[in-house]
Amino acid sequence: MLKFAQMLYKRVIDRRNEQFDAKRRPIVPVTSPVISIGNITVGGTGKSPAVQMVARILIEHGRHPAIVMRGYRRRSRGLVVVHDGESVKVSVEAAGDEAYMHAAMLGIPVVVSADKVEAAAHAAGMVSSTGAARTDVIIVDDGFQHRQLHRCTDIVLVNQETLSSTLLPVGRLREPLSELGRASIIICDDPLLCASVRPYCRADALVVVSRIEMHCQAPTSVPIVVVSGIANPARMHESLRGAGYTIAEHLMFSDHHHYRTKDLWKIRDAAAANGANIVTTDKDIAKIQPATGSELGSVALFVAHIRMVIDEAAFTQRILRDITHEDSSNKERWEES
Fold it and tell me: Radius of gyration (Cα) for the chain, nearest Å?
């Protein structure tokens, strides 16, 4: 039964992609260049660190990025401006944890909507109180399958599971591996993957390797209880051990978990039982922080800041080249219209 469902799923995905490739389905441009960051698997491959890395690169090179995303598991509807370029405007519950994290950490416009074309168009049109444009490039979080939105760069993250899995619902692939051929840039989390990925890529695709840096102010002399509600905590644990931390206990919650009072008591009790500090993620801190001094008592709470780094200069050069070319194309497109 599952194999039959997989065949039907593949037929639907193939037909959808063929329609976009043949331009029988509309692809909508907005007034700013769009960079999509995504994957072809269900689950975490490091999209959030990649989004923040690209945003920081753009800021360092004088650009003004905005982030658009769905706002998964948020307790709000429709289009919501999480950050307007000046300040965070809504709660973590209304924004969704990842959108709130981006807004709080980067201080740039963040817009959430189930309709990413709507969100991108809104972000591209945001202006300050003086009438100046807030945004000149859009980053779409988890945008690879959202083909209705025109983009100048498609960045896809790949890990070992990507190459070893099969299509839904049997495996974890959203699309066949052949669809990696749409990507402009492939980011691998292991150098050995690059050679394996290359046969699926188009000739001009850039294939690069990422590494993870972890910064945490918790003292290494005290054991830690790691608290996470993320898709793939293994790399975080590996980074913490590599930095010299002794992990006394892991409290792993489901991705995007909303912490309840009983969860916070469990965290507090685990820290007390182990004589440990609590270390959590950038995504979880906004949902746990309000409990400091109440449910968590006097337990020390620290954040392990995870950053993705790509050392190859060609990565930055490719992104800047693509958006510069798109700037020119957009100018011609809107002048003609």
Answer: 21
306/101 Cα distance (integer angstroms): 12
pLDDT exceeding 70 applies to what percent of the chain?
A: 96
Separation CA 254–CA 9 (nearest Å): 26
Hey, which bits of the chain come out as E strands? 34-38, 65-69, 80-83, 110-112, 137-141, 153-158, 185-188, 206-209, 211-215, 224-228, 247-252, 277-281, 301-309
Q: Report which DSSP code applies to 85.
A: S
Q: Give the pLDDT band of residue 127 (cuts 50, 70, 90).
A: confident
Whole-prediction pTM: 0.93
Over the range 257-279, which residues count as b (16 or more CB within 10 Å of their CB) and which as e? bebeeebbebbbebbeebebbbb
* Helix, strand, coil percent content, the chain, rounded in steps of 5: 40, 20, 40
pLDDT above 70: residue 228: yes
CA–CA–CA angle 212, 149, 153 (5° rounding): 40
- Mapped onto helix, strand or coil, the DSSP state of residue 154 is strand
d(CA 143, CA 103): 18
Query: Does residue 7 surpass a pLDDT of 80?
Result: yes
DSSP string across 251-319: EEPPTT----HHHHHHHHHHHHHHT-EEEEEHHHHHHHGGGTTTTTTT--EEEEEEEEE---HHHHHHH
